[in-house]
Amino acid sequence: YSHKFSILTFNIGNNKPPLADTITVCNKIKKIGKPEILILQDIPWKVKIYDLANILNYQYFISGRLRHHRINLGILSNYKILHYDAHINFNQDNNFHSFVKALIKIKNKKILITSVHLESLSPKIKKIKQNKYLWPIGILRLGWQELFCETERTKSVTRLLKWVEQEQADGIILAGDFNTFPFAKPIRMINNHFKD
Fold first, then answer.
1. CA angle in degrees (0–180, nearest 5) for 23-29-31
2. For a Cys staple, 60 with which of 56, 81, 101, 187, CB 3.0–4.6 Å?
3. 139 near 126, Cβ under 8 Å?
4. pLDDT at 16 (0 to 100)
5. Considering only CA atoms, which of 159, 167, 166 is closest in space to residue 189?
6. Which backbone phi and psi does 183 adopt, to 5 degrees?
7. Strand partners, 115
8. Which of the four pLDDT bands, split at 50, 70 and 90, describes residue 101?
9. Collapsing DSSP states into helix, strand and coil, what is residue 94?
10. Please, where are the H alpha helices in 41-95?
11. Are the beta carbons of 38 and 56 closer than 8 angstroms?
12. Are strands 7-11 and 37-41 parallel, antiparallel or unpaired?
């Protein structure tokens, strides 16, 4: 695919004070440079995607919250969105991953754009740090698991890959917050299917 377009993925925040508001988010995006396609994660409740679309002059947009109130992801586009879908999955710890996807038409090509937010490692890290004597071993073990074992994030990536491969698209763009480090197994799994 040879047509060039600008794209930005932006994790707005983690719902900890101070929470971003719509004007602050818009100003940050304008400062970076408004892209043709904007992919968002961790959209705070007080930031409404339709307000972002209006202020930033995006004609097309989707919000994961239209499917489930916990899916705080969105995609805004200058290009027509043909259809979209959202997915959420909770694990036994009530931690969850979520995805949204939008099939966008650009110059007679269908491009699938995704916003991904995988399970956070923060609850596990917080639990490990509670043991002041054994936390270094716990952190090493967690790193080992992320590198070589099946984890919630590897299971989520398997679901994600099956979910996006259902689409009849000329190209696929995965973007978002994968909540792991560059050489972790979930990232390697994605890199087996997609170019980074």
1. 100
2. 81
3. no
4. 67
5. 159
6. -100, 10
7. 100, 175
8. very high
9. coil
10. 49-56
11. yes
12. parallel
The C-alpha atoms of residue 94 and residue 119 are separated, in whole angstroms, by 10
Q: Fill in the amino acid letter for 165.
A: E
pTM: 0.92
pLDDT in tens, 38-74: 999 999 988 999 999 999 999 999 999 999 999 999 9
* pLDDT tens digits, one per residue of 137-188: 999 999 999 999 999 899 999 999 999 999 999 999 999 999 998 899 999 9
Structure tokens at 176: 């978002």
Q: Are 196 and 178 in contact (CB under 8 A)?
A: no
